[in-house]
């Protein structure tokens, strides 16, 4: 068997999320459907670095699968792209050595979150940004980002719907926010992220940006270790899984 | 009756075009459906500056309609936006005097056409650009644009499916192309445009950009006065009705 690794991008707008589940189409389903065609009806299981929620996008999701086919690795990308719908795209493919595993071998991830900060919505960006009408205080949000960086117990920034039993301590290497024209872009790099963590971080930062909370509230929110202490969960469509590190 | 004028934007991806027709939903249908609700079930006819094709977008389409309602003009925009789907948006509303007509009073229009010029597609721009892999010669296309400007008989750049019986002479005030990062943007301003004219102009310019035709071919194509002389019709999703002048 040959283990193939792929970096894939997808527009999550039309999907119920990455992972196969009873309701609605998923990215994994589309990948496995395309691989099944290439394998003449045989099922091939795809393993990703992790899930993404409904309507969340990826520019650098990483997957692996095992195949008995002896297709040169340089042809895998084109082969799969010709079978995939136009909202899922293979960007790179290679054949890693030494038992690579897309999920267990991750050392970190980067997420970005895009907000349109303008009185009017931009309908051409509606699937790729969330819309905040009130002007946002970038300086205050930047200060708050400083409190997010580092090793913390992020229980307050984790959805109670998580099925995680273990520790909720994670290390955020970088949390930042910048203004780009009519958009505000949040960047988070970390050792790992809990369920809905980025969206709850963004929701809380947006409340700080609107002046409803102070940057100095972050340490207290972390200390509280309860979801109620943090802000709202920001909507999914602004979120992009940007890069997975190994 | 009060005549209301509106500037509207729409993402044409999900529509069969602007104008009401038997197959598939249209922008006009959505506008009239929303107005019908506001008028408690009474039909209100909407007149636009002109049609746009299936999958073509607008950032500055202009419409008018007549209403017996005495809603302050400053509230019309919000009223209609609250009823419209999220891919159609009223940007401005006013109450013009002197019998304004959205179609008959136009003095010119501006269209823009966006091309992604890169070996790989960008799936987040797939509904708003057409994709050209081969590198494009901007200088050659700019030169060709010079031949398009001015008053010409544009029969060669008009779809034979047109129902226009009259003259196909139009004046192009401006034809231009520029490179913006990974995209190439075409701009056309003119007194009026024939059926598929912008898309045939772009399709022909792209053949010049790829070196398959010379900029100097444009005068001959115009002179030929037959659709076969020009290039392919570029796909609809890169096209935006940008502005209508009165």
From TrEMBL, chains A, B:
GO terms for molecular function: tRNA pseudouridine(38-40) synthase activity. It is an enzyme of class 5 (isomerase). Its EC number is 5.4.99.12. CDD domains: PseudoU_synth_EcTruA (cd02570). This is tRNA pseudouridine synthase A. Homodimer. Transmembrane segments: none annotated. The keyword 4Fe-4S does not apply. Formation of pseudouridine at positions 38, 39 and 40 in the anticodon stem and loop of transfer RNAs. Residues 8-105, 144-246 form the Pseudouridine synthase I TruA alpha/beta domain. It catalyses: uridine(38/39/40) in tRNA = pseudouridine(38/39/40) in tRNA. Substrate binds at residue 111. It holds the Pfam family PseudoU_synth_1. The active site is at residue 53. Belongs to the tRNA pseudouridine synthase TruA family. It comes from Halobacillus kuroshimensis. Keywords: Isomerase, tRNA processing.
